[in-house]
Amino acid sequence: MVHKKIKVNLKNTSYEVIIGKGVSLDKKIKSKFIYGKEILLISDKNIPEKKINIITSSVEDCGPHKLNSLKLKLNERSKNFTSVSKIHNFLIKKKYTRDSLIICIGGGILSDVSGFAAATYLRGINFMLMPSTLLAQVDASIGGKTGINHTMGKNLIGSFHQPILVLIDITFLRSLSTIDIAEGYAEIIKHCLIKDRKLFCWLENKLATSKKLSDKDLIKLIFESINIKRKIVQIDEKEKGLRAILNFGHTFGHAFELIGGYKTYSHGQGVALGMLIALEVSKKFFSISDVEIKRVKLILKKVGLITKPKKTIDVVKFYSALQMDKKRKKESLQFILLKELGLAVIKKEIPKKVIFDALNQSF
User: Over the stretch 271-329, which tens digit does the pLDDT of each residue have?
Assistant: First the structure.
């Protein structure tokens, strides 16, 4: 199967994203990024041992100057300084220098933590991503956002640190549950809704006839989804303006995660619910219709995401959780809404009553 490639071109750096079935460290990649380097392989403990051994052997064949492995098992509650310190401590004890490369093999949380560790060790070393979940493949692997959570909110501490290469192999997804796959679809659907109505309709039609995409269609979907994010990031790398639209559903979604103590709602579930609230708010200001909202609800259900909160929401506590959003400007929150499917806008100063009404009417 032919691999697809995308190049992310930024002001101070650029890197390739390679997508396909059986994507691996080929000779060109090995000679350019691995030969003679100090390599630390950081992998998720949940990834099949056979897969990790194949990648490790492939790296060994290239003659790195140093090679060590570190396995971690992280979740939203352990996405913190303690986990970053485990990586820093390992690098320091093994005497890694600035001529080092972290290769991260895992999901979005591990990508964020490893990337932040790379960004802060010796003021910045290189890192490469081999995302193992659909969520990481279409979201965390692109754009250079790295970071950790704080007890007061999600992703409040972090840095922009771009990878030098991203390798996306869809065979990683074979070991994932349908629930895990659904997490990635939350971000894919978000990308469609903010920028590509045509892709939304394509996915809608595909899922109308089958619950599972073919490998060819899945590669196309990942490619197109990444391409949406790439175009936005290239214009606004540090989220000074346009890039904020990638947060559609996230301001509300992070509030769900926070009030649930990062236990009740996964990231994908939070984003799914957050998008529905954002659509309800959008209806107050723009031409989004109930019919279109029902279409979004249907596709969320088809990919395995929830469309109703698991518990009754205390709107006052929820609104308080919104105030911890890291993207607020001064004392005001900004929200990403839709003028129509495929066209996102940034809107500030939404009255509290509108948000309360949307919370009560969304589910």
Answer: 999 999 999 999 999 989 999 999 999 999 999 999 999 999 999 999 999 887 755 65
Half-sphere exposure of 237 (CA within 13 A, CB side): 13
Q: For residue 70, how many other CB atoms are within 10 A of its CB?
A: 15
| Distance (Å, whole) CA 259 – CA 265 | 9
Establish if 166 belongs to a structural domain.
Answer: yes
pLDDT digit string, tens, across residues 7-60? 999 988 899 999 999 888 877 887 888 888 999 999 999 898 999 999 999 888
Report the domain count for the chain: 2
Mean pLDDT of the chain: 92
Identify the CA nearest to 184 among candidates 122, 229, 239, 125: 229
CB 178 within 8 A of CB 282: no
Cα Dmax for the chain: 62
Token duo for residue 158: 């972090």
Task: Give residue for tokens 């949307």.
Answer: 358
Residues 252 and 152 in one domain: no
Q: What residues are paired with 338 via a beta bridge?
A: 344
Instruction: Measure the CA–CA gap between 346 and 337, rounded to whole angstroms.
Output: 6
Q: For residue 42, how far is the Cα from the chain centroid? A: 18
Q: What confidence tens digit (pLDDT) does each residue in 209-226 have? A: 888 899 999 999 999 999
Domain of residue 296, CATH code: 1.20.1090.10
Same domain, 182 and 317: yes
CB within 8 Å of 99: residues ≥ 6 apart: 37, 38, 65
What residues make up the domain containing 331? 178-207+238-361
Q: 38-44 and 14-20: which strand pairing?
A: unpaired
CA angle 219, 223, 227 (to 5 degrees): 170
Cα separation, 309 vs 313, whole angstroms: 7
Residues 168 and 137 sit within 8 Å (Cβ to Cβ): yes
- Out of 175, 197, 226, a domain closes at 175
Place of tokens 């971690």: 72
Give ∠ CA 89-95-96 in degrees, rounded to 5: 90
Containing 89, the helix (H) or strand (E) segment is helix 81-93
**Tokens encoding 360:** 């009560």
Question: End of a domain among 157, 175, 193?
Answer: 175
